[in-house]
Design goal:
Elements: H1 8-20, H2 23-30, E1 51-52, E2 54-59, H3 64-68, E3 75-79, E4 82-87, E5 90-95, E6 98-100, H4 106-112, H5 115-123, E7 127-133, H6 140-145, H7 154-162, H8 169-183, E8 190-199, E9 202-205, E10 217-220, E11 224-227, E12 233-235, H9 238-251, E13 254-257, E14 260-264, E15 267-279, E16 285-296, H10 303-306, H11 310-334, H12 349-353, E17 363-370, H13 377-390, E18 394-395, H14 403-429, H15 470-473, H16 476-536
Parallel strand pairs: 2-6, 2-17, 7-16, 7-17
Antiparallel strand pairs: 1-18, 3-4, 4-5, 8-9, 8-12, 8-15, 10-11, 13-14, 15-16
The structure holds adenosine-5'-triphosphate.
Binding site for ATP: 134-141
Main location: cytoplasm
GO molecular function: ATP binding; microtubule binding; microtubule motor activity
């Protein structure tokens, strides 16, 4: 059974599209991880701005089958992130963050798709996703992993390492990540990777084929949707990451049909986890849990064209069904009126696992892949319409840190503001500054935080640095002591600042009364002086 991916919303969308062009520039501006802009990630931002999904389009060259059929080319490239599609004598314009024409190299796509910024954000602690979307045979796997066929997967490790010609976005990203991580040696990175596929609505662990029993997708408040018992491999070098890619690709479900000799029959998700320590205020060390997922979706297919039968027909039905759910989620999320309502994430495993990337707390890049051939016009228009809609999806990225560390960091920041206010109020009232720390420093005889020569700032109370593992080593009692101490300090500051504020206000009003009295007395004095002058005369 062929499932039609175009919903009513799509059909209506063709009319609406022409009027939507104006907002493209606005959307570009709103994107936190734009192609040009680079985002500062020096400190943990607990509440980042909203940003749109970044969308680029890639148009592959005509394939031998299309050339042999003498297919017309339906796409034009006027520049500036635009692609025009010829349909029934009319030109349909689409605009994206970037458009890659048929001749573009893999490296150009990597450099100009915003992938570098996405990876920087993953290093900075955000959950990032790059996913390739498009009909079967449109170049999704080629874009992500390069021209690698299942028979030649050994190339991914040996040849790819020395031959960037065979790289896809994933290999370029691996090299970029390892390079950046090496430059940030002080952040103490731990890198891990997992690789799974969703085949016929079952999750399979591609790095643990012996347990080829479907893994379960679960939900928790802290993690959102996640795959239970997924094998996560620790990696240290670029070669280790290449081996993860190679191992996973060998186990991926691939089959041949009329439109693609090596068609992916599953959606695959390769995730690189980047845990890093960062030193925040008062020497507090927090561990950021960034990650980047590369999602190679199976392509939508018209089974009349692909000639799928038997097993491949069942696969096609499952692929189309889950892509339909993805399309419904994208449609709902891109509509400002529906965004706050029900989003059907739970209707497929794919949308559950992409929930955080679409309308959630992650940062997302979508690569829409299409053919230039007029033979597949309706599929091309469909892909570009969804891509256009995806640009309107708003995410609210947050740095992923442990909730307890996040709380401590928030308290510390609140305390810093109170401390500054305290300092300011004391200055105004000409009170002496606080001197003694509340906590003895563990490494100094006098319990004071060690200071550099010439450092004349008022001494701030020392807060003990809390490492992620510290909490594991401490008994619950000890943990609650340090947490409650923080609360106590915060409480004390708040009470003291409140008292200082009151005192300040009293002084201000007393000052006003004095001024008034001064004015009255002065004018009385003037009056008396004048009287006295009159008497003397
Ligand atoms: N930009 C490109 N340049 C050259 N060849 C390409 C390009 N994109 C795709 N191809 C070729 O087109 C064919 C189909 O590509 P690919 O397998 O990546 O498609 P797909 O979208 O992943 O398909 P499916 O959804 O069926 O898995 C492959 O032989 C691939 O090498």
């Amino acid at each position: 059974m062929e499932e039609e991916l175009e919903t009513n919303a799509d059909k209506e969308g063709t009319v609406a599209e022409d009027n939507e062009e104006k907002s493209d520039e606005e959307i570009n501006k709103q994107s936190t991880f734009s192609l040009k802009g680079s985002r500062k990630l020096s400190a943990v931002e607990l509440d980042a701005d909203e940003c749109n999904v970044n969308v680029v389009a890639r148009i592959r060259p005509l394939n031998p089958q299309e050339i042999e059929r003498s297919d017309k080319v339906a796409t034009q490239f006027p520049g500036d992130g635009a692609v025009w599609v010829e349909t029934q004598g009319k030109t349909k314009p689409f605009a994206f963050h970037a458009v890659f024409q048929p001749g573009c190299s893999q490296e150009e796509v990597f450099k100009n798709s915003g992938m570098g910024n996405l990876l920087d954000m993953a290093i900075g602690g955000y959950a990032c996703t790059a996913f390739a979307y498009g009909q079967t045979g449109s170049g999704k796997t080629f874009t992500l992993t390069g021209p690698v066929t299942p028979e030649a997967t050994e190339l991914t490790q040996e040849k790819s390492l020395s031959d960037p010609e065979s790289y896809g976005l994933i290999q370029f990203s691996f090299a970029y990540l390892m390079d950046q991580v090496a430059q940030k040696s002080q952040s103490n990175f731990t890198i891990k990777a997992s690789y799974l596929e969703i085949y016929n609505e079952q999750v399979q662990d591609l790095l643990n084929p012996s347990s080829f029993e479907a893994a379960q997708v679960r939900w928790s408040k802290a993690l959102g949707f996640y795959v239970d018992n997924l094998f996560i491999r620790e990696v240290e070098t670029l070669e280790d990451l290449m081996v993860v890619l190679e191992d996973g690709m060998k186990n991926r479900a691939v089959a041949e049909h009329n439109m693609n000799e090596h068609s992916s029959r599953s959606h695959s998700i390769l995730t690189v986890y980047l845990d890093s320590d960062s030193t925040e205020e008062n020497d507090l060390i927090v561990t950021k849990h960034g990650k980047v997922s590369f999602v190679d979706l199976a392509g939508s297919e018209k089974v009349k064209e692909t000639g799928s039968t038997g097993e491949t027909l069942i696969e096609a039905t499952n692929i189309n069904r889950s892509l339909l759910t993805l399309g419904n989620c994208i449609s709902a999320l891109s509509d400002a009126k529906k965004r706050g309502g029900h989003i059907p994430y739970r209707d497929s495993k794919l949308t559950k696992l992409l929930a955080d990337s679409l309308g959630g707390t992650g940062v997302t890049l979508m690569i829409a892949c299409v053919t230039p051939s007029s033979y597949n016009l309706s599929e091309t228009l469909n892909t570009l319409r969804y891509a256009k809609r995806a640009r309107k999806i708003k995410n609210k990225p947050v740095v992923r840190i442990d909730p307890r560390e996040e709380l401590i960091l928030k308290l510390q920041r609140e305390m810093k503001l109170l401390r500054q206010e305290n300092h300011f109020l004391r200055n105004q009232l000409e009170f002496p500054q606080r001197e003694k720390p509340r906590f003895p420093h563990p490494n100094t005889a006098d319990g004071m935080k060690p200071r550099h020569d010439g450092d004349r700032e008022p001494q701030a109370p020392y807060l003990p640095a809390i490492k992620a593992n510290d909490s594991k080593d401490k008994s619950p009692d000890q943990r609650s002591v340090s947490d409650s101490s923080l609360y106590e300090m915060l409480q004390e500051y708040m009470v003291e600042n409140e008292a200082l504020r009151n005192e300040n206000q009293n002084l201000v009003s007393r000052h006003n009364v004095n001024e008034r009295e001064h004015r009255i007395i002065s004018s009385e004095n003037n009056r008396l002086s004048r009287k006295l002058e009159g008497v003397s005369r």
